[in-house]
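Deliverable D5.2: sample structural annotation.
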Amino acid sequence: METAPDASLPATVGPYRVVGRLAMGGMAELLMGRRVGPSGFTRTVAVKRILPHLASDEDFRNMFLDEARLAAMIQHPNVVRVEDLGQDGASYYMAMELLEGDTVASLQRALAEPLEPDLAAYVVAECAAGLHAAHTLTDAEGRSLDVVHRDVTPHNVFVTLDGRVKLIDFGVARAAQRITTTQSGVIKGKFAYMSPEQLRDQRVDHRSDQFSLGVVLFELLTRRRLFARSNQGATVHAVVSEEAPPPSTLRPGLPPALDAICQRALAKRPEERFADCDAMRAALNEYLGTSTGEARVRERLAGLMTLSFPEARGRASSSGQLVGEASSAATGPSIHPRPKPRRPLWIALGIALAIGAAAGLFFARSDDPEAPVVAAPAPIFVEISSDPPGAHIAMPGVTDAVTPARLERAPSVVPVSVELTLPGHEPWSRTLTLDVSQRVHATLATSPLAAVPREEAGASAAPEADPAAEEENAAAARAAEENADDAVRTDPADEARPRRRGRRREGADTAIPLWD
């Protein structure tokens, strides 16, 4: 019995017949499309399309086009292939290769223990190869495009069922000749994976992506978050000021070679890292060559992926329903996946791309084409910053926000109280009338108690303020406008992930678990 097609799906997008929907977010949707040619030729792709009611948004459209053009220029087996870019009516779309597999983040959640060292090294080495291809991209005249991905995270590294590794999502990448530009003070990416120079809003180059990849390697080896802390201010401080411990301190027995590679990639100063991602790849491949060899590692990774995601090997039925075929049992490595509920049967490249806060636009939209046409008051924006940054914002209707932050509010003539608190500093408070957009900056005075020497203040006194750390963190204050919401909104998978909350332990083991 054939199932009725989904009425919400378009019949076609450009030359592609829509088979089904893979995912949908607030700004873009991901469809499975099939192109039929002469003599029975067919090609199935993932079609990423701007939602119709956002097609006229020039900023979003330009970011979408930038992403498509840049990804299409990078021809490398470790970078997702963009096959087509077109316009269907008023909406733009891009067609990408359809991949069977899932992201490294999903693989980590599926496993009950850390990834085997050889597998982690292989994944990161392949990703480094893809990054190097992006970093060395040139225009038709041979001039470097200075590409920096800026969002290298476990959610943007895709592993297929046959063990191939693909770098995805160039939505916030920086490159010459982009239509859009990043405003000064606007940080794009996820705080816990950014380099110190990126968080300080300094000029970044290819070595910034290498630092982010070092964070991914550390977390694959230990199954612990390296810099993520209980709030964004603490996360920023950890990235900028705290030295990363060797992975072996959290997972004894790791090879010293992996410790050395990880430590070098995570150097705070860019000049102390590898010369480029290709050098990092070479170091990882040298380690693999002295252990089990690349080819065998890829086979083991393929076995683990098939074992962890049997439902990802699927096919699309002619009725438009997405169905799957469980793959045959694979002989994988000794790591066993943890039991988990069934997930969508087709796992496609691009689900982590652009669904939710798509293509790097870090502001929320609530446009609804079917909503009644009722004039609503335009929102106002309150930009709150502090020196030093990282202060907790207490304000009606605001939760888990730290400075600097850009808050969207409905205009109101009712006064509201705003209070900023930061350990070691005096509280700061003001009463504001939020009837128009405004900027508020607070200079937080050091608490007198914090300035008293520890031996005089007693055990309960706050530690003396660290001027060097404050100066480093103050550089992050230039990250205005969207950054307070960025780390929360841009990654729906992070919001869905269970988190363990508790006190940090003393010593090297200060990282928190990736997932329970």
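Annotation notes: Residues 175-188, 315-376, 451-465, 477-511 have pLDDT under 50 and may be disordered. The chain has three domains: 12-97, 102-360+506-513, 380-481.
The annotation will be released with the project's public dataset once the embargo ends.
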